[in-house]
Design a protein that fits this description.
Helix content: 25-40%
Strand content: 25-35%
Number of domains: 2
Distance between the termini: 64 Å
Number of helices: 16
Oligomer: single chain
Length: 537
Amino acid sequence: MKARPFLAVVLAVVLLLLSLAAGGWWLVLQRSPLQLQHQALVSPRAARFVPRSAALSLYWLSDGEQPVGYARAVAPPRQRRQAAEAVARLRDGGFAAAGLDYPSELAPWLGRELGLALLASEPGAAPDGWLLALRSRDADGARRFLQRFWQTRSLAGTDLQISSYRGMGLISGRGALVGTTPVPIATALINDDFVLIASGRGVLEQALDVSQIDELNQAASPRFQQGVQQLAEGAALLTARPEALGPWLGLPASLNAPGAIQELVASLRPEGRTLVLDGLLQLGPEAGALEALPATTPAAAATGTALLEGLQGPSDSLALVQQPSAWPALWQPLLTAVLPAAGQSLPALVVAGDTGPVLWSEGRQGWLLGTAADQPDPADLDGPLAAEGLIAAPLPVEGDASIRVWTRLEAPQAGRRPARTEPAQLQASLAGARSSQGRLAWWGQNLAVLQDQREARQPPRPRLEQLASLDLVQAPLQWAMADQRAQALLQRWTTWRLLSGLAGQPLAEAVQGLSLGLEAGPDSGASVHVRAQLGFG
């Protein structure tokens, strides 16, 4: 009988130790930078001070140290220091652009929310002002920062103006980091733990105005709140209006036409060494929603799966497009970027005549198109191609008697003509070829591409894994790029070059791949769901 109390005590001690261990582990996980991968998306407090008319806004829902810790945690062991330093330089450069020194002025007090908005003085114009909202970890940090901030600028000769607006104390003047040109800056302290910094008194007064009127600020916008709820997870929240979608986010000019796109609401979150963007493009009446595309039928889905499973050989760019000929006109520039060689005669006719899925692959040997065997019928292309001087003919090849080629007869180029004693001979240049394999057809830029497809035994696994990770099986567009193709695309993007400038080093070299998917949004065609994944080494 005496053993029972002893066992009860032992059991209680064990349970207590397990509880303490579980609690300690939970606290470690909560403070771990890896929590950025599964952070719930919430409506940021700073959104109350951002006008709905803001061209672009970005809300970072963590402090300034977590991204640096995350980069260090997920980078390969030999690259952890370099990865952390690169993220830290990007962070510090961003604050320096606003005249702030992160290590000395912000690091001691900055809390888990940061907001940035780009504003235009006139509706639809390019942004010419900015607003920064910073949340303090405690009640005294924000006040001490403002005191030191303006004391330092005052000692440097800045004339300060102190006033009151809507019951808030405003301080304005001209400030900058040492060695940089002073710029207009205005600040306000909200509820002792929130600092607003703006590119001038007028911008700051506008922020305080909209905070008092729900119909004017982002926080009370139904579209903004709906985006937060539908996106659910993210370490950052991004919004952009048409005037920022082209210059800042690189959308084709056709999608910036009046009435095409109303707004983008997107979340950013890391997954391992990949940065994921999930966004909802709110469409206007002129957009031609992706919902207008015919729904993916079971037959089309089966054909798309068969194309992906049948593809062989390396690929630098791989895209699966559902019925490209049926896409609305406003989205055609995007397809041109995905299918760059579709402007040539043969691939253009194949894409235009296919009523099912099209698989596009580009590699060192050239482009390759995959379709269903009867989509389109090659005989239907002979007439239009003949009008351009292309002649169709069968080409028996060992192991494949179904190859059909289209060639053009040309005179020899100058400098390559035979001696005058010999008659000039016409040369045949290959414009493309087609080979059928069961219920699939493969169209290639040259015979070497078709030979790789016929004889290679290794599929392009990295590209297929990129498409699979998008998890958009029935999306009208799925596109994956290798490192060099992704780097070349990003380096043409103005915002990427700006980020590289803020970081003080090229950022493209670390990119290992880029993938993109588009599908109809959850609200019956009123929006488009965009998912992009940027992989880093």
